[in-house]
Amino acid sequence: MKRPLLALARVGSALVLWAGMLVTCFAQPFEAGKATIRFVNDPEPVPGFTLKTVDGRILQSDEWQGKVVSLNFWATWCPPCLDEIPNLIRLQSKYADRLQIVGLSLDIGPQESVNALLQNFVAQRGINYPVAIASPELQAKFGGILGLPTAFLLDKHGQVVQKHVGVVDPKLYEAEIRALLGLSVDAKIERLQDTGQGFPSDVKRTQQPPAVRSDPSSAVRRFEFTYAARFPHIPADSGEVRAWIPLPPTDTQQAISDLRIESPVPFKIHRESEYGNEYVYLDVPAKTLPQELEIQIHFRVERHEHRVALNLAFSNVRPGTPTTNPEVSRALAPDRLIPITGAIESLSEQETRGLRTPLEKARAIYDYVVATMRYDKTGQGWGRGDALFASNTKRGNCTDFHSLFIGMMRAAHIPARFEIGFPIPTDKTEGPVAGYHCWAEFYIDPAGWIPVDSSEAWQKPARRDYFFGANDENRVLFTVGRDIRLNPPQDGQPLNFFIYPYVEVGGKQFEGVKYQFVFRDLPAPSVSTLQGGEGSLR
């Protein structure tokens, strides 16, 4: 899932690059002699800041005068970020004292733990440039980080002349650096006049990557959330107690800030490799546990409506086109309870017969699921996300609706994936959250990931069209995927999906943990905050 973004803490003096010309999202390949490099003609100076690197050095932004600087926001859980690191190492080595690359990590967790994680990571990867933790305050100075990796390029005078969100062609990136150093480049260089779009005096949201395509006026909800897990007394002779408790990601639809984990026993934050889900992990002998153990996870959320402007032009790529993106490839493979052959394949073929494009097929499958399924949690068998159960009984909860949708999509060679989190009540401003909610996304090039919520569409018929290509802001995402293999690995089977704590005692699954979820709405940023006053979202 691999997704990016921390909360906008204080945006009064934020440096915000806005126009599509100035923000390069998932840049096209660089062609020598044909490419154009674009820089801001009237750039603004970078906001002043001080950093403490993971090895304890103090860095100040004004010490890089005379150098070209690349400020790279990234995270260890972000595969595209990791893909860029070898090139950053190469560039830092090649241009040595004329270039300063700085890695600014958005990894979350207790500062000591994150610092240790990054120290090990820097050593293992041989990173030759400074790495520091990007605090929410630092992110706010740059208008919030709405995608990873995000890179800001500074000229020799400390002025921001370009911003990239997403993976950048290494040749383009080096050409930009060479141009700023006054070296020869085989590309046309344009200087764009800043008319207020590049560095507006009023605050605007940073452009999101193309896969998001959010309406700038999309709705936003800000709230606090508490996830509590209560363990009953576990006898001292029970052996090792291991627990994995999911954490919400920061991505292009939601900003997680002020994460605080309260636990009377030691824990670490880990990440599994297939989907990038993160979680609290503890491994302690039962004899060391208190009589009753409670772990609480507190955080703040800024959740944006996710709405994709659907267009048949997004369907240029026909189903079955090979992909080298492992995230997309995984979304074409079956899961234990989501087969893509047999009855599911036949049903998919039946409902998409005669349709050409992936978007047309996706809409037909969505309409079939909404029209045929029934939101019904009576009896047995529902709530497991079993596509065959859903197909046969035509009932269930959100897991069943979306498992049928995902299975039929994959059978039609359209990548689709499962997402799960919690719904935030629309008729209250605070209180308990009863349980999880899930939805799905499908992938079409070049639109990227497109959200659907078929079970919400069934329950709210008037919004049926809306929930094909959109998710509202009244939710918080926790994890992605099915058949999840944790790290460190669990002794039991892969998790069907991951939203509640998974616990093993003595190597066997333990189901005695109780959980509770509570939310409280937060006020919108005050006028004084937006104008740079003392108020701030923290």
Primary descriptors:
538 residues; alpha+beta; Immunoglobulin-like; C8orf32 fold; seven-stranded mixed β-sheet; 21% helix; 28% strand; disordered N terminus; disordered C terminus
Molecular structure report:
The chain is α+β, with helices and mostly antiparallel strands. It folds into three domains: 23-192, Glutaredoxin; 223-305 and 498-521, Immunoglobulin-like (Sandwich); 308-480, C8orf32 fold (Roll), CATH 3.10.620. It is 21% helix and 28% strand. Strands 1, 3, 6, 7, 8, 9 and 10 form a seven-stranded mixed sheet that branches. Strand 25 and strand 26 (508-510) form a beta hairpin. It is globular, with a radius of gyration of 24 Å.
Query: In percent terms, what proportion of residues is strand?
Result: 25-35%
Radius of gyration: 24 Å
Give the CATH class of the largest domain.
Alpha Beta
User: What value does the average pLDDT take?
Assistant: 84
Label the structural class. alpha+beta
Query: What's the main sheet like?
Result: 7 strands, mixed
**How many beta strands in the DSSP annotation?**
27
Q: Say what the CATH topology of the largest domain is.
A: C8orf32 fold
Q: Spans of 5+ residues with little confidence (pLDDT < 50)?
A: 1-28, 194-216, 527-538
Helical proportion?
10-25%
Q: Provide a count of the helices.
A: 11
CATH architecture of the largest domain: Roll
Whole-number tally of structural domains: 3
Shape: globular
Instruction: State the separation between the terminal residues, measured CA to CA.
Output: 26 Å
